Amino acid sequence: MNAAQHTAPDPAPASAPVAVVTGASRGLGLALARALAADGWQLVVTARGEAELAAAAADLAAVTEVVALPGSVVDDDHRARLAEAAAGLGGADLLINNAGTLNGASTPGADPLPRLADFPLPDLLEAFEVNALAPIALTQLLLPQLRARAGAVLNISSDAAVVAYPGWGGYGAGKAALDLATAVLAREEPQLRVWAVDPGSMRTRMLQEASPGEDISGEPLPEDVAPVLLGLLRDGAASGRYRAADLAAARGGR
Length: 254
Fold this sequence. Notes:
Layout: E1 4-6, E2 18-22, H1 27-38, E3 42-46, H2 50-60, E4 66-68, H3 76-88, E5 94-97, H4 121-148, E6 152-156, H5 169-188, E7 193-198, H6 205-210, H7 222-235, E8 240-243, H8 244-252
């Protein structure tokens, strides 16, 4: 199956905004997609895991219109299909670049956080492609749609982009590159809102893979973090880099 399209029993009106969400089969990506669907957004969602994405799309389709396209954001043709799907729904108002990888490795059992001295260069290249290059490339494709709607780009960053954690060099360097690209895009496209957001630690599969054997049950769920991030959209926040913890504290103080 190359694509799966699910339509809600009551399709969203033609005026409903459209969001493209990568890495949407689980974790923060799925939580963001669910929150957007609840707010009436139409969705184009993607992830590498076909079965997980199909299950997520079936859940989302009970709420809104959703087009699910399994594949890798590193693939040029796949990114083109995502842009075409968004145009078919009326054009993207929001792009969420959430897909990411710790180490770029597809080999089971590979070290989730290799030291830079030991990082296999093909895996490091893949990590940069997923975490930095692919989001920039997908943004390029969607810019005409986003410009037409004075839309927004939300790039999911990490504290590893600004703090030197041993073992996080490959992932953090890719996210740091994405942070700088986000800041430059915001200057070059002032009619758009462009955000990089560090969501903080969450109770996700990625964090568990990065922390084998550790108890992460005390970390917040992605479903608790997603509304905080989407507050940037609701509030019309200025372009910039944000931390979810700071956003939550600010909202709590209102």
